[in-house]
Amino acid sequence: MSDFATRLIAGARRLGPLCVGIDPHPGKIPDLFGGDTPDGLAAWGEAVVAAAADRVTVVKPQVGLFERHGPDGMRALQRVCKASKEAGLLVITDAKRGDIGSTAKGYALAYLSPTAPFPSDAVTVNPYMGLDTLEPFLEQAEANGKGVVVLARTSNPGSSDFQARDLEGAPLYARVVEALAPAIERLKGAEGWSSLMLVAGATGPDEARHLRQLAENALFLVPGYGAQGGGAADALAGFKRAGNRLEGGVVNASRSVTFPDGADSAATRTEWTAIVEAAIDEAQADLSKHAGSTSAILA
Ligand SMILES: O=c1ccn([C@@H]2O[C@H](COP(=O)(O)O)[C@@H](O)[C@H]2O)c(=O)[nH]1
């Protein structure tokens, strides 16, 4: 099996850089699917997967929004991960884990081992407990062709509270990424891209450019496009030129493509599907246009 980074970049080259986020927000799951219940989450998530298949290369289920329903919610997450794999999609499970090395292994096995109950191609991790806490994830990634997505510069309004703080002449997020350099190199795959990805929010295009200078070979997972206000040019700021295109990661959209205008009042699942597929196509086209345009490259 090829490494995660090579699978991801090949898919993004073929279909475009959009990643569809599967975020079952409270009160937002249409009654058509069973509403805000574990079965509703699973049925809605599987419908999102079906809409995303062949339109994008990767989906990103958000764990907390399943976990709020307890064990049944986690079973719904499991169904969504499995349905995604069966549909040929890559899965970045957004769990934002982080723990001392000995117990972080539990999380790494849950998402990245060959027998993981939540089959994923990559999982998001929080690096702020230190490099040793990432090691179990790196080991699983290396052994099984998986990826590890490390929070670098996040998209939320409070991202500067700590991440932008000066640490000996550079922002903390930059120091984190500098420290990740050996791990980025260690997970470098066949295409030259590393399976250690960095989160680089679309809400901070300058920081994304800075991150690219620091980590030339790291793919970026870019949240913040769409519902959080980031546009395509912002989202692609940290990508790099590859011939006449920009590449270097994937751009997540969750609410803007899974709860678009009109989807909540769809009378049938067929109608809902058409609305969501159109929203996915629109976002993919928007990003692909910018990724292929000279003005975006030179911006
Ligand atoms: O810095 C980060 C890291 C992760 N996220 C996650 O991405 C999606 C964004 O959802 P939208 O509806 O497109 O805003 C969500 O799952 C977040 O937990 C992020 O937004 N920022």
From TrEMBL:
Name under which the protein is recorded: Orotidine 5'-phosphate decarboxylase
The entry's keywords: Decarboxylase, Lyase, Pyrimidine biosynthesis
Domain Orotidine 5'-phosphate decarboxylase, residue spans: 17-270
Catalytic activity: orotidine 5'-phosphate + H(+) = UMP + CO2
Biological classification of the source: Bacteria, Pseudomonadati, Pseudomonadota, Alphaproteobacteria, Hyphomonadales
Domain of life according to the entry: Bacteria
Family: Belongs to the OMP decarboxylase family. Type 2 subfamily.
Species assigned in the record: Hyphomonas adhaerens MHS-3
HAMAP family (alphabetical): OMPdecase_type2
One Gene Ontology biological process: 'de novo' UMP biosynthetic process
Keyword flag Lyase: yes
Gene Ontology MF terms: orotidine-5'-phosphate decarboxylase activity
